[in-house]
Amino acid sequence: VNGGSVAEKVDFGKGLFEKEVPVDGVFQQNEMIDVIAVTKGKGYEGVVTRWGVTRLPRKTHRGLRKVACIGAWHPARIQYSVARAGQNGYHHRTEINKKIYRIGKAARPMGDGKQSAAPKVNPNASTEKDLTKKEITPLGGFPHYGEVNEDYVMIKGGVPGPKKRVITLRKTLIPQTSRAATEEITLSFIDTASKFGHGRFQTASEKKKFYGP
């Protein structure tokens, strides 16, 4: 919370208690944001995978996926900068400057559950050039995730961590003046084909129409 006195900040925060804060109330399209999360865990790994050091020659005694010399006799301890085996992944990371391409409304607004006879569906993946009425969830759902029925944020680039991991979205801490940061993005097409195979069809109705009864 920026601006104002400490008392005003506390009052602002207190006013948000027990209220839903929609994502479009915090972020806007074309804004640059930072993403904070814990990366995918890889477990205990060796120096070649963990640090990318070069393998030793094939005939090396006692293994070749090693660091040949881990330091001089003196100082009589290993320097922090020498690559060693150990935990890889599951690290807290912050990636900066991710551009928001779209903030979409919920596909199935609250109260319109799937149980009703004909749930009202919001075509939140349509664009000005692609008028097909479709949701953001691809055919068959997102792999290892499922369906996205709530409000969503589409950003450029990847985020740390596996599917379903909690991530923190933060407003940028630096003034954005680059061409990429200030340009306006207008999406022409959002691909909703299946992510499990080659993905020929954009919607279930299109697939049904192609294959017939």
If you had to describe this structure to a student in words, what would you say it looks like?
With 213 residues, the protein is α+β, with helices and mostly antiparallel strands. The chain has four helices and six strands, in the order αββαββββαα. The strands form two sheets. Strands 5-4-1-6 form a four-stranded antiparallel β-sheet, with no helix packed on it. It has a two-stranded antiparallel ribbon with strand order 2-3. It is extended. The mean pLDDT is 92.
- Give the ordered list of helices and strands: HEEHEEEEHH
Largest sheet: 4 strands, antiparallel
Oligomer: single chain
Rg value: 24 Å
Q: Roughly what is the average pLDDT, rounded to an integer?
A: 92
Q: How many distinct beta strands?
A: 6
- Class from helix and strand fractions: alpha+beta
What is the number of helices? 4
Shape: extended
Distance between the termini: 56 Å
Strand content: 15-25%
- Helix coverage percent of residues? 10-25%
Give the strand line-up of the largest sheet: 5-4-1-6
- Low-confidence stretches at least 5 residues in length (pLDDT < 50)? none
